[in-house]
Amino acid sequence: MRTCYRCKTRMLEGFDVKVEGAGYGIKISDGEGIFAKRIEKPKVAICPNCGEISLYIENVSEISK
Prior knowledge:
Blueprint: E1 12-16, E2 28-30, E3 37-40, E4 43-46, E5 53-56
Antiparallel strand pairs: 1-4, 2-3, 4-5
């Protein structure tokens, strides 16, 4: 469960980010360039009270520390 940082309301989770004009969306990668390791597509949580959005990834085990 995600909580809005602004108004402390429970956020609605699981939405996607899409780039306007393209259906591919965005991806999080580790490194630079075209050969960077793709980690995951980010998800979006939306606050139904104030409209604040939060980007997150579900599988944090893929992140190198």
